[in-house]
């Protein structure tokens, strides 16, 4: 996972979300590729079997997670004033002005993709 953004960038990010506990590892920890993926046991701590996923399943899940993350970029960019500042603004100016002055400009700058 990219430490700065939280975006998945490796199949290991997908693997850690599949089952609880230490159910997989790498035969070569310096070369974390599918060929070096090792499944420790056939029954995970979460009660589900831990069969080795196919490389395609992992790369597809990684691509989907990346796509889902990228689709939410607009939401991550929408930074509003603190709740205290917003409530104070509403108290002094009303809800309609708050929406016009504080909320709408942020939504206009970072629109939700259609």
Could you name the key traits of this structure?
49% helix, two-stranded antiparallel sheet, mainly alpha, 114 residues, elongated
Q: In brief, what are we looking at here?
A:
The protein is mainly α. The protein has helices at 11-18, 55-71, 73-77, 83-93, 95-109, and strands at 24-26, 37-39.
Molecular structure report:
This protein is mainly alpha-helical and 114 residues long. It has 2 domains: 61 residues; 31 residues, no CATH class. The protein is built from 5 helices and 2 strands. It has a two-stranded antiparallel ribbon with strand order 1-2. The longest helix is centred in the middle third of the chain and has 17 residues. The radius of gyration is 22 Å and the shape is elongated. The two termini are 27 Å apart.
The biggest sheet amounts to:
2 strands, antiparallel
**Helix-strand makeup class:** mainly alpha
Overall pLDDT confidence:
90
Total number of β-strand segments? 2
Unreliable stretches, pLDDT < 50, 5 or more residues? none
Separate helix tally? 5
- Give the SSE order as H and E letters: HEEHHHH
Number of domain units: 2
Cα-atom Rg, whole angstroms?
Answer: 22 Å
Q: State the distance separating the first and last CA atoms.
A: 27 Å
Portion in strands: 5-15%
Kindly state the percentage of residues in helix: 40-55%
Estimate the global geometry from the Cα principal axes. elongated
How are the strands of the largest sheet arranged? 1-2
């Amino acid at each position: 996972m990219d430490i700065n953004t939280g975006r998945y960038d490796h199949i290991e990010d997908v693997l850690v979300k599949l089952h609880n506990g230490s159910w997989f590892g790498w035969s070569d920890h310096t070369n974390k590729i599918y060929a070096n993926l090792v499944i420790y046991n056939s029954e995970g701590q979460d009660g589900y079997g831990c069969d080795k996923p196919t490389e395609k399943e992992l790369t597809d899940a990684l691509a989907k997670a990346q796509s889902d993350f990228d689709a939410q970029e607009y939401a991550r960019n929408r930074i509003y004033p603190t709740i205290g500042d917003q409530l104070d603004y509403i108290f002094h100016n009303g809800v309609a002005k708050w929406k016009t002055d504080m909320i709408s400009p942020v939504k206009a700058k970072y629109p939700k993709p259609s």
